[in-house]
Known about the structure:
Layout (H helix, E strand, L loop, with lengths): L7 E10 L2 E11 L4 E5 L6 H8 L7 E6 L4 H6 L3 E4 L11 H11 L6 H8 L14 H12 L6 E5 L7 H16 L3 E5 L3 H7 L2 E6 L2 E6 L1 H8 L2 E6 L6 H5 L4 E7 L2 E6 L2 H10 L5 E7 L2 H16 L1
Parallel strand pairs: 3-7, 3-8, 5-6, 6-7
Antiparallel strand pairs: 1-2, 1-4, 8-9, 10-12, 10-13, 11-12
Protein name: Putative ABC transporter ATP-binding protein YvfR
Organism: Streptomyces afghaniensis 772
Pfam families: ABC_tran
Amino acid sequence: MTTTASVVAFDQVSKAYDAVRAVDALTLALRPGQTVALLGPNGAGKSTTLDLLLGLKKPDSGTVRLFGTSPRDAIVAGRVGAMLQSGGLMDEVTVAELVRLACDLHPKPYRPSEVLSRAGIEQIADRKVNKLSGGQAQRVRFALATAGDSDLIVLDEPTTGMDVTTRQAFWATMREQADQGRTVLFATHYLEEADAVADRVLVLHRGRLLADGTAAEIKAKAGARRISFDLAGRVDEAALRDLPFLTSLTVSGRTVRIQSTDADATVHALYGLGVYPRNLEVAGLGLEQAFVAITTAEEAKSK
């Protein structure tokens, strides 16, 4: 792995808290212009990974490099902008004053008016920070992360508290940042955002990298398909659970939803039961279902 060509490079990085290994021999590299989603269940190591990347924590072993140098040096040079879940906002100052301070501190600042406009917070520029709603505070944190011309933007659960319209505008701005050659790394619980926005998805579980690829590749890795249909008569759930290659089954009224690792064989066996499904649909997993399938399979292996 050539760290000098990478925006971010983790090389066999581990971090433990007592007996809990939060990050376990993590190796990955991010390139310029990528929009990367970091996914994982609670306790997967996402926050620790971001803390290591930003130099807020030091690894027990392995190395973290940003632009071929240490996280601290990259941040001091103004090459990294970060938006964390909480903190970072001063009380009893106005939004405009806080943004102006962030611009003054950045080695390559933008004009405060430009930062306020990009974040969509001109209307609340004169409001005290401690009087903001959750969604407004998130937009202010975004403004602070983009107060200057940084090459890497790191976002931890960036759209928490934002309404749908604001979230759409936020991600449109993020796509513009990536189009300009910046790398955007974001951790999120909104898997539909990762599916729609990211051109690369990283799935963490127990501090290890389970999957790395496009959203389509992650879905294919899950190795299952969705089958849904309606039944006109009584639903024999016990018989349906005996279908081959079944990985999950849910019944809602007369609507049946199945996940199968061999949809053709499952549907063939379904007709063999003498069942005549109506409105039959067979489709690939969404990113959320694929994420659940991958992490559930990993949990089963560890038991």
